[in-house]
Structure formats: C-alpha cells, structure tokens
Amino acid sequence: MKVTLPRAELADAAGWVARHLPVRPVPGSPVAAGLLLDAAAERVTLSAYDYQAAVTATVDAPAVVPGRVLLPGRLVAEIVRSLPDESVRLTVDEGWLTVRAGSAHYRVPTLPLDDYPALPAFPPPLGEVDTLGFSAAVGQVVPAAARDETFPVLTALRLEFASHGLTLVATDRYRLASRTIPWQPSVRAPEAVAHVPARLLAELARIPTAASRVSLGLGASDDGDGGTQFGLSTGNRRVVVRLVEGTFPRYRRLFPDSVPLTATTQVAPFAAAIRRVAVVGGRSTPIRLTFGGGRVVADVGAPASATAAAGWNGETDGGELASATDSVQVEYDGPDLVVWYNPTFLLDGLGAIEGDEVTIGFASADPGEAASSPAIVTGKDDGGFRYVLMPVVRGGPR
C-alpha cells in the first residue's frame, strides 16, 4: 500500500476514530485497539470497531498502491498529530507501516488483519435531521441519562421516530429530559424506537462536519443475532452502533395534566445563586428553595438535620455548622412554597434552557403536595424541551 494525504485532514480523521478505541488492552482481543486503514482508488477510509460501535471517517486522497492494513490506532493518531504541516506519505511493506512528512520518519508494526471482524453495514435509511438541531437536542437531553450500569437501558438515550417529529428522552429515575425536534422521514411509516448509548451519542452529536443534514438508519444487525443497529452519517463521518436492550420506563405519566403553580425567573442569576449556595454543601447535598414574596431563596446547611439526611453534617474543619443563602427575583403568585432539590440535577436542567428565562411548574396548588411532586422545568419558548425534576425528601430522592 502507498498513499499520500494532507496532514490536517488525516490527523482530524485519525484522531476522531481513535477516540472510540479502548484505552486499555482488551484481554484476548489485541485487534480491538486497531485502526483499520483502507486505501482505495479515490479515498482513504479509517475505521474502528469494538463490537458495540463501528466508526468510520474518510479522506479524499487517491492511493498510488491500494491496500488495507490494521494499525495500532492511538499510536498512529498521535504520530500523525505530531507531524509537521506537510503532506504525509504512508507506505506498508512486509508488516511495517512507514510514515514520512518533511524530515520526520516513523516505522510502526502492523496488526494481524485476518483477525479483525467485518465492519457492520449501515442499516436501512430512516430519514434526515438538521445537524445543529440534532446536536443541540442531544446536548439538552443526555445529562439526564444514568451513569451506572445497574439498569443498562437507563444509560441509553431513547429516540422515538414518528411522522410528527423526533423525540429524544433520557432519565436516571431522579430526573427526566425530553425534547422533540422536526425531522424528514424517508420511509412511509417512520414509527420506530431506538435506545442508543447516551455517552456515545453525546460524542457523535459533536462530529466535526460542515454538512447541514444528518442521515439516520435503523434495522436488524447483519450478524444474525437478532439485535438492532442504529446508524448515523454526516459528511465524511459514519457510525453504526448496537442498541441497548431493555424496557424503558413509562415516562409520559410523569408529565402532569396541568401546572397550577408556576415560578418564572432569569436563568443566569438563578443558576449563579444555586452554584454559590452549593459551595457549602457540595454537589449532592440538597438545596432548599423557598418561593414567596417575589423572590426565591436558596439555602443549605440550616437546619442541620436537612443536610444530615443527605449524608453530610454541614460541619467545617473547625466543627462549626456552615450555611449559605442567596436569592433572586421571581414571578410567583402562589402560596409560600418550600422544596428541596439536588443542586447538580437542577443546574443540569437550567443549563439546557435555550432562552433567558426558566419556568418551574408544580403539579399541585397545595404547597405540601407540590413540594413532594415532580417539577416541570421549561424555557420561555420551550421549543419542545421539558425537564422533569424529582424533589428530595427526607431519606433521599423520591
């Protein structure tokens, strides 16, 4: 194999593909860390596959001598990134890759290509979505996905395809985020559901591309194991990922029929106040919000029993009980209301609001019931985004 490529384009493609390779060696499968380089007549394709997701990037560059080779991916990506900004010449001969650019010269051993699995084919096309709109929606929803693997399906972002729109949903049982965006189906009956690994989709939503549309595909895996695959393609990037199996919670019942109590305030000052107060208690100590008198007061550390219920006694190194209070103006006409929230979860919801204002809706006009029921966080012009936040009650999240 022999091919010459622009360094910047090669470094960009190799770096993006290598990010999806395992950081540590996979026992019994050394080729899992391999980057597959396929030099054809018109373009060079770089791929990585860990049996969960196959990622592919292409660079327009005709090969002098076509060929396929499996390379130690992270090493090659680092080599290319460090090269001078000149054309890169790649040559493979007798089990060695030679890399030359300017005065730099490298020799890297190749990996056994015969042991590398076949890459999955892109599933049948389902439709297209705006690149920036899709990326923004994923960014809003994905923070609500679970991080641990106790319930694998909760680590996924649920995609609901329908003729009226594409809905993205994520939940870790303590909060839930949902956003509906327009899309263009390419099939007559587009109704389908896909549970895509949330962390992977968050990375894919940031694919560097100038393309205005993202092509989506969904269908049975081509290895005959009964699984389902989701495909995403834009510009010179393509991904095929195996879906997460499991039953997603019946989340729609969390959305109340009405919100008789609402509080509206400016996002930036409110989020800043939450961050300042959370300095005392930490990221997981509940923060108390008190609505009334045209203001919302955020405090932590008083009374001590409230923070003790969350596993922290509120004491400083000197033994004193630390506390913090801050407040911002709010539009709220209901009775005095006291609620407790996890500050990290609350800040995630505020960070997903696209406008300057946020509205917190409560499902009951009774302060006691409202304090123990899910809150609905939306923007002034919500754009289809809703964030359901479960309150913290004594003994833990409800």
Give an overview in words:
The chain is α+β, with helices and mostly antiparallel strands and 398 residues long. The chain contains eight helices and 28 strands. It has a nine-stranded antiparallel β-sheet. A hairpin with a 2-residue loop joins strand 17 and strand 18 (237-242). Helix 5 (267-281) packs antiparallel against helix 7.
* Overall pLDDT metric: 88
Helix fraction bin: 10-25%
Low-confidence stretches: 303-314
Question: Strand order within the widest sheet?
Answer: 6-2-3-4-18-17-16-10-14
What spatial form do the alpha-carbon principal axes imply? elongated
Number of strands: 28
**Structure annotation, total helices:** 8
Task: Tell me about the largest β-sheet.
Answer: 9 strands, antiparallel
Q: Give the DSSP E fraction (strand runs of 2 or more residues).
A: 35-45%
- Class from secondary-structure proportions: alpha+beta
Radius of gyration: 25 Å
Distance between the termini: 61 Å
Describe the structure using short key phrases.
398 residues, alpha+beta, nine-stranded antiparallel β-sheet, eight-stranded antiparallel β-sheet, 8 helices, 28 strands, 19% helix, 39% strand, elongated
Task: Give the gist of this structure.
With 398 residues, this protein is an alpha+beta fold. Helix content is 19%, strand content 39%.
